[in-house]
Specification:
The structure holds two protein chains of two kinds.
Chain A: H1 2-35, H2 58-66, H3 69-100, H4 106-117, H5 121-134, H6 141-148, H7 152-162, H8 167-175, H9 180-191, H10 193-209, H11 212-217, H12 226-236, H13 241-273
Chain B: H1 2-48, E1 51-52, E2 60-61, H2 65-72, H3 74-105, H4 112-124, H5 127-137, H6 144-151, H7 169-193, H8 198-206, H9 211-222, H10 224-240, H11 243-248, H12 260-270, H13 274-305
Antiparallel strand pairs in B: 1-2
Helix pairs in contact in B: 2-13, 3-7, 3-10, 4-7, 10-13, 12-13
Classes of the chains: A mainly alpha, B mainly alpha.
Chain lengths: ~280, ~300
């Protein structure tokens, strides 16, 4: 009897602690959301108003008028979708070659991928930039797409997964006369759906949030993406925090929606790969 | 007979070639892009580190002079020191936070999934948005964090300047970095905690071991591979930290939050000093590379030992 009472007490404590931690963790984001509906003068009012007196939805209208935010949003979606598509398509293809096809030189090629996977981007961003300059691809969407679409990580992640598909399954299909392409499309690909989903989501999130890539590559306004748009706000309207926060909410929203619906794959991706970070 | 053998051999060769061609057809679409846009630049970064170049005029071989020059550079030495300070604090705080959170969330209570998701969310949040929020939160006058501090009784003259003070800026950056990434490492710990067999705990409680004792003698040691993995990942991540610094402070005030990555950026795209930038990049690579190598070696040893 005494024991259960103690258990209940412990449980209540755990709940309170968890609620406290969660609130503290989410507080900056809540503050951002609330500030995005405020007037200029209310943002830093003492004490903090967590719920604005009146909701100024016009902040969300003004961000589209002050800078070409619509264009930036379009660019963000365009680049993210194209990069994710190319990345997932070519990676899943290559991963099949590296895990299920046997030929000379295969392992040497794969070693190139492994060798670069741990190398931070800062190490080669400069030579990469010079290369792009020579190819006249700086400040173009094409250059950015080419730069981001072929990361070694995707090949590595999918190869890990494909290797868990039993070879006997593919042998049997080959004997039945299925070509290698048939094996890929009709056996491995359907089995690899969760891994493909994980890679899709990770690539989407990374490209959508990418800041340094566009920062270095895009100079002309026509090419810029949402993160650069937020930077522009900070530069031009540094005191209008409510607008900066509204733009930030817009940047977060697609990821939040994706996160709510595809959470399983986020968690799965970390549990299986434990690599990207 | 001999002609039959010949055709047989021919068929084998052609089968081999066919296999190679089919295999390459899978790999090449990705590999060509990868080789041109990643592999070549990586190799080229080694070449650049022993050259003098501004990106336009002809290259000139200078041997190790770039390395000598950056070590003479006060800013580089500061960047190196700050990167180490940043990494040490980030690793310690993140490990404690991640393990603590994982332990709390490794229970069968209601809404546990909600708590997990909420704490993980900052990890996938846009870094520029996060930077913008924390810039506001950390404002010296009227920022919510200092408002809170004065509410709990910190006198006005002791309130930290956070991002605007050379003394506090690095600490502010560390706080944001820990906040953003702790959820990720929490998930890694959680996965490992769920693999610890419950029979161990049952046996321990029959023997009358307290919860604290169980943590010390079962949970903590059973997590050794995860401690190791988390430690290495955190260290490498901290050495690579770049966009967060850019979004929060751009290396300032002064050079107080200039980390190695920021130094490389400045040398590359502000000073157009390609030699120094590449030499600093090689130093960073050596650090990250030796940590990775250490991980491989130690992991192998650990596995052999098990």
């Amino acid at each position: 009897m005494k024991k259960t009472k103690q258990d209940l007490f412990v449980q209540v404590c755990v709940y309170l602690l968890l609620i406290l931690i969660t609130v503290v963790t989410l507080l900056p984001l809540v503050w951002m959301f609330s500030a995005s509906f405020k007037l200029d003068s209310e943002v830093f009012s003492v004490p903090i108003q967590w719920i604005p007196k009146t909701f100024h939805f016009e902040n969300y209208v003004r961000i589209w008028q002050k800078i070409p935010f619509g264009l930036f949003t379009f660019n963000s979606f365009k680049l993210t979708i194209i990069v994710t598509f190319i990345q997932v398509l070519t990676c899943s293809f290559a991963a099949y070659g590296f895990s299920k096809c046997k030929f000379r030189g295969r392992d040497t090629l794969f070693l190139c991928y492994i060798a670069t996977i741990a190398i931070p981007w800062q190490i080669y961003m400069l030579p990469q930039y010079s290369l792009m300059q020579k190819l006249h691809l700086v400040d173009t969407h094409l250059g950015y797409i080419l730069m981001q679409s072929f990361a070694a990580f995707g090949v590595f992640l999918l190869r890990q997964f494909y290797q868990s598909v039993p070879n006997e399954l593919i042998e049997a299909a080959r004997i039945d006369g299925l070509s290698e392409y048939g094996c890929y499309f009709r056996i491995v690909l359907p089995l690899a759906k969760p891994a493909i989903a994980t890679l899709t989501i990770f690539t989407f999130v990374n490209t959508w949030n990418d800041f340094m890539g566009p920062m270095i590559y895009f100079n002309s306004e026509a090419n810029k993406t949402i993160p650069l748009g937020i930077r522009m706000f900070i530069g031009q309207y540094s005191s209008e925090y409510q607008l900066i926060m509204a733009a930030s909410v817009v940047a977060l929203l697609p990821i939040l929606i994706l996160y709510v619906f595809c959470q399983r794959f986020f968690v799965q991706g970390i549990a299986t790969s434990g690599l990207k970070g | 007979m001999s002609t039959a053998a010949k055709t047989e051999k021919k068929r084998v060769i052609s089968l081999n070639t066919r296999n190679t061609l089919v295999g390459l057809s899978f790999i090449l679409p990705n590999f060509i892009g990868f080789a041109v846009f990643i592999l070549v630049p990586v190799v080229f970064s080694f070449v650049l580190s022993v050259m003098k170049w501004d990106g336009f005029t002809a290259m000139e071989f200078v041997g190790l002079r770039n390395f000598v020059n950056i070590f003479k550079d006060r800013v580089f030495r500061a960047a190196l020191r700050q990167t180490i300070v940043f990494s040490v604090f980030t690793v310690i705080f993140s490990m404690i936070a991640a393990l603590g959170l994982a332990l709390l969330l490794n229970t069968k209570i209601k809404f546990v999934n909600f708590f997990r998701s909420a704490i993980f969310f900052p990890y996938v949040a846009s870094i520029v948005a996060v930077g913008a929020v924390f810039k506001a939160m950390f404002l010296k006058d009227g920022g919510p964090i200092n408002q809170f501090l004065s509410m709990i009784g910190v006198p006005a003259e002791l309130l930290p300047g956070w991002l605007s003070s050379t003394k506090w800026a690095l600490m502010a950056v560390i706080i944001v970095q820990v906040w953003k990434n702790m959820g990720y490492f929490m998930l890694i710990y959680l996965a490992a905690l769920q693999d610890i067999p419950s029979s161990l705990y049952e046996a321990a409680s029959i023997d009358g071991a307290s919860k604290w004792r169980q943590f010390r003698s079962i949970t903590f040691p059973m997590l050794t591979p995860s401690h190791f993995f988390v430690f290495i990942m955190l260290t490498i991540n901290s050495f690579k930290t770049f966009d967060l610094i850019f979004a929060l402070t751009e290396g300032g005030p002064g050079t107080s939050t200039t980390l190695l990555s920021m130094y490389i950026y400045n040398q590359s795209f502000i000073s157009w000093n390609y030699g120094s930038a590449s030499a600093a990049a090689i130093i960073l690579l050596l650090i990250v590379g030796s940590i990775t190598l250490f991980q491989f070696k130690a992991e192998k040893k650990f596995n052999d030992f098990m």
